[in-house]
Structure prediction request, 296 residues.
Amino acid sequence: MKSYISDGLVSESLLLLRSINDFNCTDKDQVRELHVTYGINKDSALDFAIQCDWINADGSLISITPKGNSIVSAFNGYSVSESLWQRILFDYVSLSRPAWTGLIPKGRKETFLFMTPDEQRCFIQSGLMKKPVTTQVVNWWDKIADEVRAEKQDKNNEVGRTGELLTLEYEKARTGKDAEWEAIESNLAGFDIISFRDSISSEKILIEVKSSTQDIDHADMIISRNEWDTAWSLCNRGRYYFYAWLLSGSVKFAKIPVEVMKKHIPEDVGGGKWKDIAIPFCLFSELFSVYNTLPK
Prediction:
């Protein structure tokens, strides 16, 4: 179970880490025998150091990681500088992923509101909340925000690929033919899959796949301008479909004709032109059914 950071836990972990380094401890039994300072919870401190990747644990054997050695060398044994606090907090957020981590790209004020009081105290002590904002502080928030965005993008890519694989399976069952996975070849085509009208026709259809792990009331699909222009072009609108997949719990599927989607597409006004739009899955709730690999 992961621990939430506090200034006390950080102090205990740093003191323990320094003692492990000074006495060259190599197993947990040695750590428990260490005399660090009165009242320190060595088990909690050790667990937190492992959680932050300052210590590597293999069964009862332990060793300080390069990251841990760097932390030890920056600790004077008495106080934690703002720069060291910032390094500690980066390790904590990056590896522990507290519940508010996803809010970081929205800004530090929005993130701070959802922290525990102990977490807030640590961020204040680190200087990461002070004004005026320094370049060092801006760089810290930008770096961790980039990491969060990259992780989210990786997850979105995985969810998207899952929906595309299910679509290929569905189309194979529906037509008896192998569909083409265009999204693997290019993300500029304006659709993900090329399949067939039915089992006896050679006419091609184009499929854009949208997937979500949210429930239907909270899931959105993002449609790009390129996807919509491709879908609504005169040569495609009669053969273009949106396949929507809800992947949480029982997998659910909806096949949405382009004419139905058109009702929810905005118009350009004046000199403005939209680029991407979010369409709620719940707008098509009547089209969804539980997917059991049998085509509808």
About this structure: The CA atoms of residues 44 and 161 lie 40 Å apart.
